[in-house]
Task: inverse folding
């Protein structure tokens, strides 16, 4: 019984100590630049003609508890062009889409 307890204790300590080592990736990730938001928010709420608004309303799948806002659309546009979201900081979503 003591042998099993000693093995469990050693295994637990080894498991815990692996998280104490410094990780180079974690220290460099704190140096990420924040995206630059525009000083003025663009107006994404466009007034379309009635027949287009009717068609858009029929195909709208936006959740009622999460409406599209100008602030949210502006943030999405900034993130769409932000290269920092890629693994090597060289590609944005806009590069392919």
Result:
């Amino acid at each position: 019984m003591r042998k099993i307890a000693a093995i469990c204790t050693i295994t637990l300590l080894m498991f815990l100590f692996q998280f104490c080592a410094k990780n180079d990736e974690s220290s460099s990730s704190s140096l990420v630049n924040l995206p630059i938001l525009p000083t003025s928010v663009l107006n994404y709420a466009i007034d379309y003609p009635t027949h287009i608004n009717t068609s858009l309303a029929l195909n709208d799948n936006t959740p009622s508890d999460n409406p599209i806002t100008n602030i949210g659309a502006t943030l999405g546009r900034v993130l769409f062009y932000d290269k920092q979201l890629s693994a090597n900081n060289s590609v944005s979503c806009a590069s392919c889409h």
Remarks:
- Residues 23 and 73 are 35 Å apart (CA to CA).
- The mean pLDDT is 82.
- The two ends are 61 Å apart (CA to CA).
